[in-house]
Design a protein that fits this description.
single chain; seven-stranded mixed beta sheet; 14 helices
Length: 420
């Protein structure tokens, strides 16, 4: 009886906190004004409220999974979606990877259990299930609210946001944005698209939105991300974004083929969601993603925007969405909406495992600036290409590199900005 009552209460509370987070997201995204005067309800407070709601929602226990393959033996604490993301990053081909649902762990046990999992002694029983050994664990990854006071003291520990935003500071004119050799291919593609009948207009017609959601957005997101796709509800897309902004609708000979949900908040234009008709490979070959991005930017200029927020990307530079946006010289900024953090912990890692993490390119936030994590155990080999790595990080819209070793951590950046 008590268990049944607890479960019903938990469901009701989670629903309540979901609504709180939804409202906080709208405040942070500039859609809703804070409930009371800004002086008494600053946006920083709204973020704290959202993060705390997220923590209470996942309290008191998290799911624990073990991912095992030829190279890695990883513990993931968190949701199924994070488990699947980690498996794709560290086991990209899923070759001989096994997933074991270990159980659940309480918040107050997490730090101590992390130490137990990472104990290098093979005889150590390090499972939540007594009497069962999980072998030597290479890495523990914990997904949690940003409010969770989880600070493992392992030699290799770093924290990343699972989502970031990428934002363009718009120059005085659109021509300035596309100037230079770097954008020669983009200019050629846009000119060719215009000659071939591509155009765009701004729409607030519900019929256009319905066509966008069902025939463009859904096929595009599912086709691009597969089982990892995070699909927004029709009502959320319509009520949150479309009714507060509209749809930049790209047409080909007057037939709608793509769309970008956009709205203005202050001096920032937000590119929230996009879709491609039927996720057509032919349209991709014609450069529809570049065409759609430029149409949205051009609309932003017409609204006298100073910034163009390109929306969310996962917090690692090898992510495909991140890579596409960085080509527009977008800078990494903190995600406007509520997000979770991933805490990585390891006691020691072989050079090949360090190289794997460095290749993924995780992003961390230090003193409100964003850096690419680079494990710096083998200092000599890292330093050979240090300048090249710093230039690469700057091109990725980051401040520099966060160099991490068991005995030292430091942030480094180029003494002067690099101009390509």
């Amino acid at each position: 009886m008590l268990i049944h009552l607890y479960k019903r209460s938990k469901i009701a509370l989670n629903y309540l906190f979901d609504r709180v987070i939804d409202e906080v997201d709208l405040v942070l995204m500039g859609i809703h004004e804070p409930p009371v005067a800004r002086a008494f309800y600053p946006y920083k407070t709204a973020r704290h409220v959202g993060n705390l709601s997220d923590l209470i929602r996942e309290f008191p226990r998290w799911y624990v999974y073990q991912l095992t393959g030829h190279e890695w033996n990883i513990i993931v604490v968190g949701s199924e979606s994070s488990r699947d993301e980690i498996s794709q990053l560290f086991f990209p081909d899923n070759e001989d990877m096994t997933v074991h649902h270990v159980g659940r762990i309480a918040l107050w046990e997490l730090t101590k259990q992390t130490q137990i999992w990472l104990d290098p002694c093979p005889a150590q029983t390090n499972s939540l299930q007594k009497g069962e050994s999980m072998g030597i664990i290479d890495l523990v990854v914990c997904e949690s609210s940003c409010s969770l006071p989880y600070h493992p003291q392992e030699p290799i520990t770093f924290v990343i946001p699972n989502w970031v935003n990428q934002e363009i500071t718009l120059p005085h004119s659109a021509n300035e944005l596309l100037a230079g050799k770097k954008f020669a291919t983009t200019r050629h593609r846009l000119n060719k698209a215009k000659r071939n009948g591509f155009s765009y207009h701004f729409s607030q017609d519900k019929a256009d939105f319905d066509n966008f959601y069902y025939n463009m957005y859904l096929p595009y997101v599912i086709g691009r991300h597969g089982k990892l796709a995070v699909i927004a509800k029709y009502s959320d897309q319509k009520n949150r974004w479309f009714l507060n902004g509209g749809l930049v609708l790209i047409t080909h000979h007057d037939v709608p083929v793509a769309g970008v949900l956009c709205y203005m908040a202050g001096d920032t234009c937000f590119d929230v969601e996009r879709g491609i008709l039927g996720s057509s490979s032919k349209l991709f070959k014609q450069g529809i993603e570049t065409i759609a991005t430029w149409a949205a930017i051009d609309w932003a200029y017409k609204q006298h925007a100073t910034f163009f927020n390109m929306g969310g990307s996962h917090g690692w530079v090898s992510n495909g969405t991140f890579s596409t946006k960085r080509r527009w010289k977008a800078k990494v900024i903190r995600r406007k909406r509520i997000y979770k953090k991933w805490t990585f912990s390891a006691r020691q890692l072989s050079p090949s495992k360090q190289a794997c993490i460095n290749k993924i390119g995780f992003i961390t936030e230090i003193d409100k600036s964003f850096y690419r994590v680079m494990l710096d155990v083998n200092t000599e080999s890292i330093n050979i290409n240090l300048k090249a790595e710093l230039i690469s990080a700057q091109k990725e819209g980051l401040q520099g590199l966060y160099m991490l070793s068991p005995h030292e951590e430091r942030c480094i950046q180029l003494p002067t900005p690099y101009h390509s």
